[in-house]
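Structure ticket #2291
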Amino acid sequence: MSDLNLVLVEPQIPQNTGNVARTCAVTGSALHLVKPMGFEIDDRKLKRAGLDYWDKLDITYYDSLDSFLEINANESLYFFSTKAYNSFSGISYPKRCFLVFGKETAGLPPELIRSNPERSVRIPMRDSLRCLNLSNSVAIGAYEVLRQWGYPGLTNDPAFRF
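Resolution: structure written out below.
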């Protein structure tokens, strides 16, 4: 089981989910998908965005956000939202954690953010713009956690590529 868990709640765009799957594969993070989703998991666009990494993924599916929250009630959950007050980079992430992201069209439910202010975080951006792309936000969050942990299991050696 992975220490870093990336959670997409009701993702709507298959290419975003495919990109997040690719991020999970290259970082060794687990992917958690919360239904309903705006596409079928065998969607051609989803598979293309994830390239040939699908067999390298640890994926868990949940029927609803309530189900996910109940099953993972004892985990360290961090909720990413443009409505949160804490900066994502100001958090010291524990060794095992879940980064939770909402659907592209609406984000996470406001009541979830309001009821978890200490674990709700935002990525700073210009206030005149709505939000970053979901897959970009996930990658930003994931790499901050991995940076804090010293990039466990990842190589920074370009020699392995040649």
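Closing remark: The first strand starts at residue 4 and ends at 9.
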